[in-house]
Amino acid sequence: MCEVEETERSSHLGTKEHWEEAYSSELRNFEEDEDDVGDVWFGRQCLKRVVEALKRRWDDPMSRSEVSVLDLGTGNGVTLVELRKAGFKKLSGIDYVSSSIDLANAILVKEFGIDHGTHLCCMDFMNESDFTTLENVPFDVCFDKGTYDAIRLNPDCCAQKTPKIYAQNVKKMLKPAGILVLTSCNWTEAELVSHFIDELERIDTVTHPSMSFGGATGSTCTTVIFKVL
Asked: Which HAMAP family does the protein's record reference (predicted)?
């Protein structure tokens, strides 16, 4: 096993056991109260800014409806809901926790009905070698809001190998002109670019509001748009 480079960033938040427990709890809560969709990573305003940035890349609603998007680590599916409301219709979501897929499906059914048209699949993005079970492969867009963070928080993460495996699997998912939209609260833009320097190229950044603390100014999260090299 490879030694973890930044041990202070490892956490139970990177373990499958944590997410199995978390989404099983959120699913029970949603079944009791359909207004309770659970946590929205980095907040709804962050999500809306990133979705708006994606909309600007496809200004025409008709062309937007033909764009295929894969939500990596879909969680409760709220990202898929926002993408659908923004006019993206060819949507897929994957997560390695089955209760996440059940919760995402329940929320999509609530929002759009039983025929919501979003393809959901329980699979481990980092360990799968064959992604052909997914619909719409290859995709125009891979959308990651916090999943890379969680992967890197796994106590077994190899700081040298994990980013390369992640980027190579993203490339398997994307069309030659496809893009990865990645939002992180653990890594700066420069760090993310350095993680994927051999596989992906930064083409844009989504600006988030800045805050000041202890004499330093920065954003609470970073969104970088990459294209395949």
From this structure: Methyltr_EFM4
Domain span at residue 17 reads 10-228
Taking residue 226's Cβ as centre, other Cβ atoms within 10 Å add up to: 24
Largest interatomic CA distance in the chain: 51
Collapsing DSSP to helix, strand or coil, 178 comes out as: strand
Number of independent structural domains in the chain = 1
pLDDT at position 218 over 60: no
Q: Is there a domain that residue 206 lies in?
A: yes
Determine how β-strand 139-145 pairs with β-strand 174-184: parallel
Place of tokens 């709804």: 44
User: For residue 1, is it within any domain?
Assistant: no
Question: Do 215 and 171 touch, CB atoms closer than 8 A?
Answer: no
* Residue 92 bridge partners (DSSP): 70, 119
Domain harbouring 183, CATH code: 3.40.50.150
Q: Tell me, what's the pLDDT at 4?
A: 38
178-209 per-residue burial string, b: 16 or more CB within 10 A, e: under 16: bbbbbbbebbeeeebbebbeebbebeeebebe
Any domain includes 2: no
In tens, the pLDDT along 32-49 reads 998 888 888 778 899 999
Residue 80 and residue 58: Cα distance in Å, rounded? Answer: 17
Q: How far apart are the first and last CA of the chain?
A: 29
Q: Residues 196, 22, 149, CA angle at the centre, nearest 5°?
A: 15
What mean pLDDT is predicted for residues 136-140?
92
pTM: 0.90
Domain annotation covers residue 4: no
- Radius of gyration, CA atoms only, the chain: 17
